[in-house]
Write a structure and sequence with these properties.
The protein has about 120 residues and is of the alpha+beta class. The radius of gyration is 14 Å and the shape is globular. The chain starts with 7 loop residues before the first helix and ends in an 11-residue tail after the last strand. Strand 2 and strand 3 form a beta hairpin. The structure holds adenosine monophosphate. The site of adenosine monophosphate has 11 residues, from loops.
């Protein structure tokens, strides 16, 4: 699947639409999800143009991958998620329920999150 430069996270990265920014460096942008599924719901996205986890893990450079996951850990700390625990999710493709075709991880925290997979 080709990268769509008009996806909503590409627009956020360009500054065309706003976000509630938590953290930014050369590799990533982290911001609050607009429709939170937990008391703390953060999205971390790479600055590079990757459609999904599959695309990112196979095509991103070692620096981008390291930069992304180090920053994600830092963000989880910054929002207080690491003290009581959290869930890290990346929806990938159609069966994974991915809505925005720019790779991202969700960091969910702030309450007991229940079973890993909701009933269909
Ligand atoms: P996914 O289903 O994994 O692709 O998740 C996409 C996430 O992006 C959803 O949790 C949405 O609530 C979130 N989202 C969509 N538009 C925005 C936006 N403008 N700002 C912040 N989060 C957004």
């Amino acid at each position: 699947m080709a990268y769509d430069r008009n996806n909503i996270f590409a627009k956020i990265l360009r500054g065309d639409i706003p976000c509630k920014k938590i953290f930014e460096n050369e590799f990533v942008l982290a911001f609050y999800d607009i429709n939170p599924q937990a008391p703390t719901h953060v999205l971390v996205i790479p600055k590079g143009e990757y459609v999904s986890f599959d695309d990112f893990s196979s095509k991103a450079s070692n620096d981008e991958i390291t930069g992304f996951f180090r920053a994600a850990g830092q963000v989880a700390n910054q929002v207080g998620a690491t003290e009581q625990g959290f869930r890290l999710i990346s929806n990938c493709g159609s069966n994974g329920g991915q809505e925005v075709p720019h790779f991202h991880i969700h960091i969910l925290a702030g309450r007991k999150l229940g079973k890993m997979i909701a009933a269909a």
